[in-house]
Amino acid sequence: MIVPTKVLFEHAYGKYALGAYNINNLEQAMGLFRGCIESQAPFIIQISKGARSYTDKRMLEAIIRAADEIFPEALFAVHLDHGDEQTAYDCIESGFYSSVMIDASHHPFEENVEITRRVVEAAHRRGISVEAELGMLGGVEEDVKVDEKNACLTDPDEAYEFVKRTGCDSLACAIGTSHGAYKFSGSQTIRFDRLAEIQKRLPGFPLVMHGSSSVPQEEVDRINAAGGCIKGSKGVDPNQYLPAAKLGVCKINIDTDGRLVWTRVHREYFRDHPAEFDLRGPGKIFMAEYAKFIVSRNQLLGSAGQLEAARDHALSSLAVVR
Question: What CATH code is carried by the domain that includes residue 22?
Fold first, then answer.
C-alpha cells in the first residue's frame, strides 16, 4: 500500500529510520519488496532523475504499481530523489509520488529558500510532502557531483531559518556523509554533535541522511576478485543508523550498496559461467541476494518488525484525513 511519506515519518520519529532505497529496474524492485516483507518493515522507494530517464518514468511507475499488487501487505512511500525544480513539478503533477525532493543546496542560501518555497507551494496544493537539502555532501551520485573541498556541513541556525521560511516537510542535512562509494578516510565519521544541534533547533521535525551506504568491504573484495577495480572505498558504519534515528533522522538513503550487490552478483556469475548469456540467471541470484541485503539493513535501521504497527498508524491517520 502506497501511503504519504509524512505518515511513515510520524510513526518512525525517534524510534527507527525508514530505509530509502533507489530502484532502476524490476530486479531491484522485486528484491526490495521481498526483503521488506521478510523483515516486516515499512520503507521508501526512491526514483532519481537519472532513473526516470534511464528507460521511461512510466516504466518504473508501472513496475511499482505491479509490485504493490503482488505484495499487498507491503507499506511504503514513493519518493523523488534529488530532483531539480522542473522534475519536481513533473512528479507533483503526475499524482503518483508520495513526496518529492528539491535539491537546490548548490545554490546560495537565499536562492535555495526561494526555489524550495516554490516547490513546497506546488506540492502542498496536491497533498505531497517536500524534502529539501541544506549544506552540501561531497562525492558523486548520478547528476550530483560535489568536490570534497566544496562540501559543507549544515548550520543548525540556518536549518531552523530555512525550514521556517520554506515550509518544507523534511530536511536532508550534511553531517559528514558523502555520495558514492568513497565516503570516509581516516577517522572521519558521522558528526553526531552537529546532528544533535540541528535536532535541538528543530524538535520533532523529520531529518534525512543522504550518502549512507555502508560500502561493505566483503562486497568490494568479491567484486575486485571477479575482475573489478574498486579501491580505497569506505562507507558509513551501519551500526550508526539507529543512533541517528534517535536524534530525529527518519529516512536514511541507501543506494550505492545495492549497486555493489548487483555488480558482485553479475561479475561472479559470468566469471563462473563464461558460456552463459541469459540475463535471467544472474537476475534470479541478484533478487535473492538483494532481498537478503535489505533484511540486514532494515534490522540495523530498526524498521524491521515495525510493519504492523506502522500500518495501523497509517490506516488511522488516513481515516482521520478522509
Answer: 3.20.20.70
The string of pLDDT tens digits covering residues 246-297 is 999 999 999 999 999 999 999 999 999 999 999 999 999 999 999 999 999 9
Query: For residue 2, what are the CA distances in angstroms to 44, 101, 122, 300, 308?
Result: 9, 17, 21, 23, 15
- Please give the model's pTM, rounded to 2 decimal places: 0.91
What's the total number of domains in the chain? 1
SS3 15: coil
What pLDDT does residue 151 have? Answer: 54
The single residue of 81, 155, 169, 257 carrying the catalytic annotation is 81
Q: How far is CA 290 from CA 23, 63, 100, 232, 296, in A?
A: 11, 17, 25, 23, 10
Number of residues assigned to the chain? 322
- Partners of residue 171 on adjacent β-strands: 132, 207
Alpha helices (runs of H) in 152-305, residue ranges in sequence order: 156-166, 192-201, 217-225, 241-246, 256-272, 280-301
Which domain covers residue 34, as residue numbers?
Answer: 5-321
User: Please, what's the b/e burial string for 179-200 (b: 16 or more CB within 10 A of its CB; e: otherwise)?
Assistant: bbbbbbeeeeebbeebbebbbe
Task: Identify which of 213, 5, 34 has the alpha carbon closest to the alpha carbon of residue 98.
Answer: 5
Helix (H) or strand (E) holding 149: none
79 among annotated binding-site residues: no
Is 213 labelled as part of a ligand binding site?
A: yes
**Annotation marks residue 81 as catalytic:** yes
| 82 annotated binding-site participant | yes
253 annotated to bind ligand: yes
179 known ligand binder: yes
3-state helix, strand, coil in the chain (%, to 5): 50, 15, 30
Which neighbouring-strand residues pair with 19? 252
Element (H, E) at 115: helix 109-125
Question: CA 191 to CA 54: how far, in whole Å?
Answer: 34
